[in-house]
Amino acid sequence: MFKEDFPIFDDQLIYLDSAASSQKPKPVLDTMLSFYTHQYSNVHRGTCALASRATQMYEDARQTVADFISADKKEIIFTKGATEAINLVASGYAQTLKTGDEVLVCISEHHANFVPWQQACLKSGATFKVFGILPDGTWDMDDFNKKLTTKTKLVAIAGMSNVLGVLNPVKEIINFAHKNGVKVLVDSAQSICHSAIDVKKMDCDYLAFSGHKIYGPTGIGVLYAKKEVLEQLPPYQFGGDMIDIVSVEKTTFAQLPARLEAGTPPIAEAIGLSSALDYVQQIGWDKVQAHGKCVFTHLIQQLKEMKDIQFLGNPDLKSGLVSFNINGIHPNDLSMILSKQNVCVRVGHHCAMPLHQFFNLSASIRVSLGLYNNEQDVDTFVVALKKAIGFFK
Ligand code: PMP
After folding, report:
1. DSSP per-residue string spanning 180-243
2. Is cis: bond before 257, omega within 30 of 0?
């Protein structure tokens, strides 16, 4: 249905790795090429018309991002990805956390929302705590309630795990955390392309995502934070653009968002991301979700019929992506044979080693869908998977 919008696809390629990174639609490619060809300049510095225009486009992109998640423009910081957005917040916490404070994350977090907190706690002497999941892949809310204490300073959780594919009840955690005076960071790297996000309704304190997982370019990500929370974050990097006055004696810093965007920003990438968000908006969330649900349901139905399949979590609770193993066959071997049939899936720990340790696994196969996938892709994949399994059994 939407495949024709994505020039990479020919008759052969079956791309089932959108959770790692999505392919790019023509409007995004055209926008970026046109910017570099006709409109390119650095931003915020020059007085020439070209620089003013590029600055306007970069700042318009910030507005588009803000509108997309119902935030205020002043609450949007451009980063190079979700990882950098989370590190920006974690480096601030590393400076303010004290011995006795606690940070709470889930065992299913991507390393990007696990390691920065572990390191911030190591540096500051705070305690790094982890709440569990149930075997079906949902959060263990009893464990969460037990582990959130009066010492907790921050909860960092994903809207959707990149392995389990469960859309998590973040609002429930946010409400409970806020009742206890605890701030919450939501890693929306996966959930951003599955449903509309309204940060005001969600009431998260911080939210992070990457452009490349929602049909935008690499090298651009977003940190949203409530204005009063952003004001508290110390500069993450120092240099051009983020200063007010510099002298030999001292430096004062610029207002937000510049204070947290040192150096030349990813200009074309921000403009490309804005075009990707426009693309999704123009299709509309209703259609995006209906299409996604239809193809994913077809995928799960087919997989459930397969012998020797072992899902990570309950397949009926997932959307958009599914991870599994076939008993007795290493996922690397399967993926190699799938690749020979032009089918791209992902194998490994998917940057979620603690989660794989919970399931007593070292690796799994992940199939993840994008707007461009259709039922025919699923059928081709299933035939290819059966062929690959047949090779070993
Ligand atoms: N969180 C989750 C849930 C992810 O899936 C990913 C990317 N796989 C990240 C964070 C990190 O995103 P990036 O590598 O684009 O910074």
Report:
1. TT-EEEEE-TTGGGTS---HHHHT-SEEEEEGGGGTS-SS-EEEEE-HHHHTTSPPSS-STTSE
2. yes
- The whole-angstrom separation of Cα 127 and Cα 119 is 10
Q: Which atom of ligand 1 is nearest to the CA of 161?
A: 3
Please answer whether residues 244 and 253 qualify as being in contact, where contact means their C-beta atoms are separated by less than 8 angstroms.
Answer: yes
Ligand 1 atom showing the smallest separation from residue 83 Cα: 16
Give the C-alpha separation, 212 to 190, whole Å.
10
One-letter amino acid at 121 equals C
Every domain of the chain and the residues it spans: 3-18+285-392, 40-281
One fold for 3-18+285-392 and 40-281: no
Atom 5 in ligand 1: residue holding the nearest Cα: 162
Answer yes or no: 351 catalytic: yes
Residue 10's pLDDT is 86
Class of the CATH-defined domain 3-18+285-392: alpha beta
pLDDT for 359-377, tens place per residue? 999 999 999 999 999 999 9
Class of the domain covering 40-281 = alpha beta
Q: Report helix, strand or coil for 383.
A: helix
The pairing of beta strand 251-253 with beta strand 243-246: antiparallel
Cβ partners under 8 Å of residue 134, min gap 6: 140
Q: Which of 160, 166, 197, 210 to mutate to test the pocket of ligand 1 (most atoms within 8 A of CB)?
A: 210
Question: Which of 70, 5, 69 is CA-nearest to residue 370?
Answer: 5
- Report residues of the chain scoring pLDDT below 70: none
Give the three-class secondary structure for 97: coil
Residues having CB within 6 Å of any atom of ligand 1 = 81-83, 110, 112-113, 158, 162, 187, 189-190, 210, 221, 351
pLDDT value of residue 11: 80
- Both tokens of 10, joined, read 């020919």
218: left (phi over 0), alpha (psi -120 to 50) or beta: beta
